[in-house]
Amino acid sequence: MPAFRSTTAHMLRESKEYASQTLMGGLSGFESPIGLDRRDRLQALKSGDIGFVHSWDINTSVDGPGTRMTVFMSGCPLRCQYCQNPDTWKMRDGQPVYLDAMVKKVERYKDLFKATGGGITFSGGESMMQPAFVSRVFRAAKEMGVHTCLDTSGFLGRNYTDDQIDDIDLCLLDVKSGNEETYKEVTGGTLAPTIEFGKRLAAQNKKIWVRFVLVPGLTDSEENVEQVAQICEQFGEAVEHIDVLGFHQLGRPKWHEMRIPYPLEDAKGPSAALKKRVTEQFESHGFVVY
Ligand code: SF4
Fold first, then answer.
1. Which of 1, 90, 175, 254 to mutate to test the pocket of ligand 1 (most atoms within 8 A of CB)?
2. DSSP of 78-111, one letter per residue?
3. Whose CA is nearest to atom 5 of ligand 1?
4. Which residues form the Radical SAM core domain (predicted)?
5. Is the full-model pTM beyond 0.85?
6. pLDDT tens string 254-280
7. Quick check: is 288 in a domain?
8. Which domain holds residue 245?
9. Residue 143, SS3?
10. By the 8 A CB rule, do 118 and 97 touch?
């Protein structure tokens, strides 16, 4: 999902400051495999020898602590109404990238990551659609002493073994709704896998930053927020904080460009009063809220 980054991040991305913080972008610096037929590609995808990548960048304070290399993987099984990056939905629209090339890129920046307390983040799309590639990069990162972060909805958590989870230092976990009905309406998917994955992370003493996108009229009811809080409570001490991300319309042009009917065409972001109410609701459960 995680394609919905924080409002600050999106604003930052638009700004000159962000441009100076971004060292690279798109898919520069990677050679795509050539000459692989469909069968070879599927085999390489399964083994994690290649991954389908939408883009990557180097950023600060956006997708986890410190300066990070964020890799946006292609492919997502959900269809969130507020998705900022519908261009990541189809895996085939990404570029195949060799595992070795990705690991070398992490190695290149490892001193920067260590100096800033940063590391590598996999985002998307839904990077859990490519568990072999992502977990092999994470394994290599851990061997280099680099911090790892997975930005996910947890919807495909069953794709991850406990050993693979062990190489995740931090998970940015999107809890998109607190009940099945709203979750289905927002994403087209089911909520239970997110809860299950969060519990597995907690059982393995991983850190979780919960992300909740606040959309007036869609996710903002007191009952829904209460249910999200109750889900977070099930993760116990693993939850370091909850990010309440106010909906905004910066993603709308992509829906238009791709000619996909955009369900939130006229939706507005939350008022300050609504954001305050939701923040206080989470705080009343003892959570730190950003
Ligand atoms: S549709 Fe997929 S990529 Fe878009 S916000 Fe939802 S989980 Fe993220």
1. 1
2. ---TT-S-GGGS-GGGSEEEEHHHHHHHHHHTHH
3. 83
4. 62-290
5. yes
6. 999 999 999 999 999 999 999 999 999
7. no
8. 51-283
9. helix
10. no
What total of structural domains would you count in the chain?
1
Q: Is residue 43 one of the residues assigned to a domain?
A: no
| pLDDT band, very low/low/confident/very high, at 284 (cuts 50, 70, 90) | very high
Query: Which residues are bridge partners to 70 per DSSP?
Result: 57, 121
**Ligand 1 atom closest to Cα of 124?**
3
In a domain, 261, yes or no: yes
Interatomic CA distance for residues 178 and 200, integer angstroms: 18
Q: Which two tokens mark 193?
A: 């896998």
Assign residue 107 a region (left: φ > 0; alpha: ψ between -120 and 50; beta: otherwise). alpha
Distance CA 78, CA 250 (A): 19
How far is the CA of 128 from the CAs of 75, 91, 196, in angstroms?
Answer: 9, 12, 14
CB of 130 shorter than 6 A to ligand 1: no
Please indicate, yes or no, if residue 246 is contained in any of the structural domains. Answer: yes
CATH code assigned at 124: 3.20.20.70
Q: Is the pLDDT of residue 9 over 50?
A: no
